[in-house]
Amino acid sequence: MNTTLRSLLHALWPLLLAAQAVSSSAATPAPADPTPAAATAAPAEGAGAASAAGTRALDEQIQSLKKDVVDLNKDLFVLEEELLFPANTQVAVFVSMDVGEFFALDSLTLKIDNHDVSSYLYTPREVSALLKGGVQRLYVGNLKAGQHELLAFFNGKGVHDRDYRRAANLRFEKGVGAKYLELKITDHLRAQQPEFEIKDWE
Length: 202
Description:
39% of the residues lie in helices and 37% in strands. By secondary structure, it is of the alpha+beta class. It folds into two domains: 3-26 and 47-84; 90-201, Immunoglobulin-like, CATH 2.60.40. The strands form two sheets. Strands 4-1-7-8 form a four-stranded mixed beta sheet. It has a four-stranded antiparallel beta sheet with strand order 3-2-5-6, with no helix packed on it. Strand 2 and strand 3 form a beta hairpin. The chain is flat, with a radius of gyration of 28 Å.
């Protein structure tokens, strides 16, 4: 295991224990006082204010611990990505869409060098996000330097709600450093049909 990853895990563990301890102490009721209520009565306003202040301090401590855990989790995710997909071998494929009349995306299948690497079925909400300008990272993997071929199959509904299946391919050179490719779906107004393009982010 990478030294940095090990140190982050060691840092995360005490925070998780501390958050659990704080939550447990908040949930544990205070022991009953056997002294008669009349003998221990205190001004109600003072006791209520002290209780509220204690609760606020406890909530702030819990929120602070949660934030530390979330921040460390982000660092671990980034580090994991760097370990699994080093920059010198990484290839990532993204999807963008600018269509309206001629194509409704249902699914995408991706092949690299004739090997299936990704297959994705879209929900209406995901398609809506793409139409609003969102970009999806469909695939990330490792490739050695040299010539490669990307093949994408687009499945969906075309004009008059007919089943529509098209393919696009791109031969590209993988050199030193990460390679980023984009699958673009657009409407071709003059031709009255969708267009599918694979763009190499140089």
